[in-house]
Amino acid sequence: MTLATQAPVATRPDVAPPEVPSFLKTETPDLDTVIRRALKPKVIAIDHGEYPADLLHEIGAAGAYRHHLATQNPAGMDIAAAIDDMDRISAECMSTGFMTWCQDAVAWYVENADNQHLKDTVLPKLASGELLGGTALSNPMKYFAGIEDILLHGEETDDGFIVNGNLPWISNLGESHVFGSIFHVKGEHPRDVMALVHTDTPGLTLKQLVEFTGMEGTGTYALFFEDVFIAKNEIMADPVGPFLNRIKAGFVLLQAGMATGVIEGCIRLCEDVEPRLGHVNCYLDDRPDELREALEDARALVRDLAQDVHNPDPAYFRQVLELRLAGSELALRAANSAMLHTGANGYLVDAPAQRKLREAYFVAIVTPAIKHLRKEIEALID
After folding, report:
1. 3 state DSSP class of 153
2. Are 19 and 69 in contact (CB under 8 A)?
3. Where is 236: in which H helix or E strand?
4. pLDDT digits (tens, 9 = 90+) for 247-262
5. Cα–Cα dist 53/174, whole Å
6. Phi/psi class of residue 10: alpha, beta or left (left: φ > 0; alpha: ψ in -120 to 50)?
7. CB-neighbour burial class of residue 284 (10 A; exposed 0-12, middle 13-18, buried 19+)
8. 33: buried, middle or exposed (CB in 10 Å: 19+, 13-18, 0-12)?
9. In terms of Cα–Cα distance, which of 195, 182, 185, 201 is closest to 232?
10. CA dist., res. 88 & res. 69, Å (int)
11. Residue 27's pLDDT is what?
């Protein structure tokens, strides 16, 4: 018996949805055209703080958010295609690639949940990019790995849960957005529960409390829950354990597109200066041909692993974690190489090379970070 057939429908105050750009109502854009025409001119503005909602809608209209969703993609689930689109976006702007992953992740949660209400009402809008959203699983993933305590706590009622607590730094959010979140329920039946939360829910406040060194345009907020009511028809997993086993490989594997895109962008920067600086850059390590060989090996492994994303074997998940770790490490190498290959020009304000360096460090520290990955891999080996 599903949650959707048992639970009352959640009610929230009427909030006008964000205006969808007119071109999305009349045409289906090609992703490469979107990247060239709409993303490339905005990269610096996004890095400095412009949240590109119209662009994200357009990326969705180009089909980038539906490849990995079997129920929303005519060709069936294609994780590799989703990663490839994220790769192409991240090569130009990893902030936008990261927001693409956030969108993919929250849709992945709904796709895999046993909740027909959300699949009928929310999932098609996430897949098309009409509705934008993020993933608030950084703290829960660290909680389940024994790294930190869970930050949200819920009290069960007859028709839902009352949730309190604070979450730092949740991205791809704004008015009329959604995100996935996990909270711990105490009481007679203690457990962890996962829900889809709407940013316009009463009692939930979004605040921008810090300024980052870059990637400011990712819609990143601290979230404050004060007696936030979540109806049972918005619950995606109760308890969350079996659900996490279904989604965790896809959650991590999808992030590979951010890493490979940053690496691709760094290689292009190295290649661009070869005609002018190749005679001296030849003395540097991690030359563009070496990096490209390693990148293509990584992309080939991504395609192989994407064929079996629901494989329950711990050895398979370890391969996914090892790929994600290798992607972080190679992104750091590639970004360092791009800085050295471009020389002083890479040190200028808003230079692509130093932006790629900051993006590469983000790949290495976003959950699961390098240290988190190594901890998880060690546990699977033991």
Report:
1. strand
2. no
3. strand 235-237
4. 999 999 999 999 999 9
5. 9
6. beta
7. middle
8. exposed
9. 195
10. 19
11. 63
